[in-house]
Every structure is written in C-alpha cells, then in structure tokens.
Amino acid sequence: MHSGPEQAQRRQQGVHVKADPARPGWVYVACYGEGKGLYRSRDRGESWEKLLTNAWMRGVAVNPANPDIIYATSSQNTCCGAPPEGSLGVVRSIDGGATWTQVNEGLPWPFAWPIALDPADPSVVYIGSPGTGFYRRRFEDPR
After folding, report:
1. Which of 9, 63, 75, 89 is the most exposed place for a label (fewest CB within 10 A)?
2. Using alpha carbons only, what angle is made at residue 137 by residues 38 and 102, rounded to the nearest 5 degrees?
3. The domain 6-138: what is its CATH number?
4. What is the DSSP string of the chain?
5. Whole-model pTM?
6. What confidence tens digit (pLDDT) does each residue in 22-39 have?
7. Distance between CA 19 and CA 35 in Å, rounded?
8. How many whole angstroms separate alpha carbon 124 and alpha carbon 140?
C-alpha cells in the first residue's frame, strides 16, 4: 500500500517520517532522490503539500512544546567534502513551515542527516553531520 506525495513514491533513495507530536494527523516526510523535498500532510496522509523543494532532505523534527518550530536536515552527498549544491544543511522554521532559515553555525559544511530534539528540553537539538560527527545546539523559543 502506497501513500504519500506522488513524487516521493517514485525511486526514493530514502525518506524520514515524523508525526507531529502536538497535532494529531499531521505528518512530515523528508525525501531525497527523484521526489526530493520536505512534505507535510494535515489529514493523515490523504493529501500533501511541499514545504521545501530542490533539496536533498534527510531528517525532520517538530518541537512538541511549540509545533510551529520545525527543523529539517539536508545533505546531497554522504561523503564529507562533496560540493554543497542541493544541500541546505540544517534549516529551521518558526512559523509552521511558511518560511525557513539556514542555521548551520558550528557545522564545517552544510551537510546534516539525523536530527533529534531533547525530550526533556526541546530547545536542545542534536544534529549528525556525515564525516564530521554529532553536534548539540540550543535554540531559543521565539515566543
């Protein structure tokens, strides 16, 4: 059974799925490959909107205390030193995905893959960067 963004169903090299912890039925999918981008469904996967395009998305995390704060990671290549085209690194939205800002301070280049929020303090973000290790960063809640 296939569900999800039509473009993301074709020849996907990988996806990361994250349910919104504060909004039942909301799901995010980070995709790379042919259907690359960040998608969101607000109706349990019946329909999808593309939030980020033309980037090899690898991971997504939603702040459970403020679900308008969303993080996504991007890395075109898994090897360090590869050209950064198609890679955003780490991006953050504080308005539910309407706008995005790159937040790559502290990363040697804009490649990031796994991402997780600290369950005890979701302002603390853990980021994995291929070939360079893991990073910890604190972001203030804009409220």
Report:
1. 9
2. 40
3. 2.130.10.10
4. ---S-HHHHSSEEEEEEEE-SSSTT-EEEEEEETT-EEEEESSTTSS-EEEEESS-EEEEEE-SS-TT-EEEEE-S-SSTT---TT--EEEEESSTTSS-EE--TT-SSS----EEE-SS-TTEEEEEETTTEEEEEE-----
5. 0.86
6. 999 999 999 887 788 999
7. 20
8. 9
